[in-house]
Automatic annotation (TrEMBL):
Entry superkingdom: Bacteria
Domain PAS: 220-255
GO molecular function: protein histidine kinase activity
Stretches that traverse the bilayer: 9-33, 176-194
Catalytic activity: ATP + protein L-histidine = ADP + protein N-phospho-L-histidine
Matching CDD domains: HATPase_DpiB-CitA-like, PAS
Residues covered by the Histidine kinase domain: 310-529
Chief location category: membrane
SUPFAM superfamilies given in the database record: ATPase domain of HSP90 chaperone/DNA topoisomerase II/histidine kinase, PYP-like sensor domain (PAS domain), Sensory domain-like, Sporulation response regulatory protein Spo0B
UniProt-listed Pfam families: HATPase_c, PAS, sCache_3_2
EC number: 2.7.13.3
Protein name: histidine kinase
Taxon lineage: Bacteria, Bacillati, Actinomycetota, Actinomycetes, Kitasatosporales
PANTHER family in alphabetical order: SENSOR HISTIDINE KINASE DCUS, TWO-COMPONENT HISTIDINE KINASE
Length: 537
């Protein structure tokens, strides 16, 4: 039956590591034993050669061979056996030039021809090797036997039992295997520790489940409409889904690059990098309003989510504009009704001349006011807002005026943003001024709009009660208001929108005290006005 491979990740890793460690250990043992066997063979052959050389150098061996005949009782046999016993060799055989034995451990073989070729030794060369002879396989050494004149008169052959070489090798194996087993055990313990840590990190899930989870994560990240951007501890992008690519203008090739390299310096990069703290932070990228939330991860990185609020912001601005227009129309309708009643009364009293003068005065005043605004405020939407707010202010008994220093060209980048900021500032000032009745000084509100290069500066002043120093930041908080909420409208949103729009442009929104009482709200919107060179291109 085929063994079943474990399914869990840690078990697979443990099994793989044990197999690898076992294989490496066996390979190392084999690589160690192979040269050891060869080295033992060489040692046995050199020992046999040394014994043969010592035998051939014995005085009287060559002379006894020349003077006598092969005999079990001869001097050559006696000398050879003495050396064999002393060295524990398998045999010491002395032969003449014809290959006839003069000595042998088996006396019956004396006088017979040797079983192996003695040609190299009889030719004057020494030889070593492993051979099979009458006494079995042995490590052999053969040297020539010379007389006193140096002439070759025979040869000496010495054999070391090959079995003793194998026994030496086998005796070394247990020690080698002991060390190999210790290495295998240490490796197994290390593999077990790694596997347990891996099991804890993977929560014991199977490898197939990891693959499925990865597929589900990819489908979820790239399927949702909200953008997801993951950063590592070095602020490099490691994941960006399709929605984030669309909202931030990034591509798959930007993965792995530092965030500050792929995004220009500004609020969006600061929010994503965590240099601006908070929740539901507004950022702008290529004209889109993004709500960003950032959460740190355990490895020092972070995951940021991005929601596209462009459409919602546009709807909010349209709603503000519609509400302002409605209030302006209501105020104009009320004012128009008062004038019509006055005109009707003059006609009923048959004061025709006075009626004509009244109509001319009202029409002339409105035309003059509109002409003055048109000369100073070239942007139609902003000018229309100021005309409408003047009607609302008149209805509420507040004098509304535009500063003589006001100058707004028709090169506003996004007039709707300016309308939102200016409309909320004026509404807030009207509420403050209308709630303060002074006999010596009637309530008033003044708007001042100036283009300083590419920066638009909006300043709205009033002679109301002002804003206490401790509340000058709170007035821009979401939901904070000194007025009671109405049933149909939430308070505390207007100035919050002003601050967020200013931050979206990279500008500021603040409030200071006006000399003589009241408040001055100042908003700076960088790059809200296109410079003349850009317009002429």
């Amino acid at each position: 039956m085929r063994p079943r491979w474990p399914r869990r990740v840690f078990a697979q890793v443990l099994s793989a590591q044990l197999l690898i460690i076992t294989g490496v250990t066996l390979l190392a043992a084999g690589l160690f034993l192979a040269p050891l066997s060869s080295r033992l063979d060489d040692q046995a052959e050199q020992r046999a050669l040394a014994i043969a050389q010592a035998t051939a150098a014995q005085p009287g061996v060559a002379a006894a061979l020349l003077d006598g005949h092969p005999s079990p009782d001869g001097p050559v046999q006696a000398a050879a056996e003495r050396i064999r016993l002393a060295t524990q060799a398998s045999y010491v055989v002395v032969i003449d030039t014809q290959g006839i034995r003069y000595s042998h451990p088996s006396p019956a073989l004396i006088g017979r021809h040797v079983s192996t070729d003695p040609g190299r030794a009889l030719s004057g060369a020494e030889w070593t090797g492993i051979q099979q002879g009458t006494l079995g396989r042995s490590a052999r050494g053969k040297v020539p036997l010379r007389d006193t004149e140096g002439a070759i008169v025979g040869a000496v052959s010495v054999g070391i039992p090959y079995q003793s070489v194998r026994l030496t090798l086998l005796h070394s194996v247990p020690g080698i295997l002991l060390y190999a087993g210790a290495a295998l055990g240490a490796g197994a313990l290390a593999a077990l520790a790694v596997s347990r840590r891996l099991r804890k990190r993977t929560h014991g899930i199977e490898l197939s489940e990891i693959s499925a989870l990865l597929g589900e994560r990819e489908a979820m990240l790239h399927g949702i409409r909200e953008g997801v951007l993951a950063l590592d501890s070095g602020q490099r992008i490691r994941l960006v889904n399709d929605a984030a690519q669309r909202l931030l203008g990034l591509g798959p090739e930007d993965v792995g690059r530092p965030l500050d390299e792929v995004l220009p310096a500004g609020r969006t990069a600061d929010v994503l990098a965590g240099r601006v703290a908070g929740t539901d932070l507004l950022a702008v990228r290529d004209g889109r309003v993004l709500v960003v939330n950032r959460m740190r991860t355990v490895d020092g990185g972070a995951v940021a989510t991005l929601r596209d609020r462009t459409e919602l912001e546009e709807l909010g601005r349209e709603l503000d504009g519609t509400r302002g227009l409605t209030e302006a129309l209501r105020a104009q309708d009320h004012e128009h009704a008062n004038r019509m009643h006055t005109l009707l009364g003059l006609l009923e009293l048959e004061l025709y001349q006075e009626a004509a003068e009244f109509v001319a005065e009202v029409a002339g005043t409105q035309r003059a006011t509109a002409e003055q605004l048109t000369e100073r405020v070239r942007e139609p939407l902003v000018g229309s807002l100021l005309v409408g707010k003047s009607a609302v202010a008149a209805e509420r008994g507040v004098t509304f005026r535009v500063s003589p220093d006001t100058w707004l060209p028709d090169r506003v980048t996004d007039p709707r943003d300016v309308v939102t900021v200016l409309g909320n500032l004026i509404d807030n000032a009207l509420d403050a001024a209308a709630g303060t009745r002074r006999d010596s000084q009637p309530p008033w509100v003044e708007a001042d709009l100036r283009a300083e290069g590419g920066t638009l500066v909006l300043r709205v002043s009033d002679n109301g009660p002002g804003v206490p120093a401790q509340a000058r930041e709170l007035v821009f908080s979401d939901g904070w208001s000194t007025k009671e909420p109405t049933a149909h409208r939430r308070r505390g949103l207007g100035l919050t929108l002003v601050r967020r729009l200013a931050e979206r442009y990279g500008g500021t929104a603040g409030v200071t005290e006006r000399g003589g009482g009241g408040a001055v709200f100042t908003v700076r919107l960088p790059e809200a006005v296109r410079i003349l060179e850009e317009v002429n291109r």
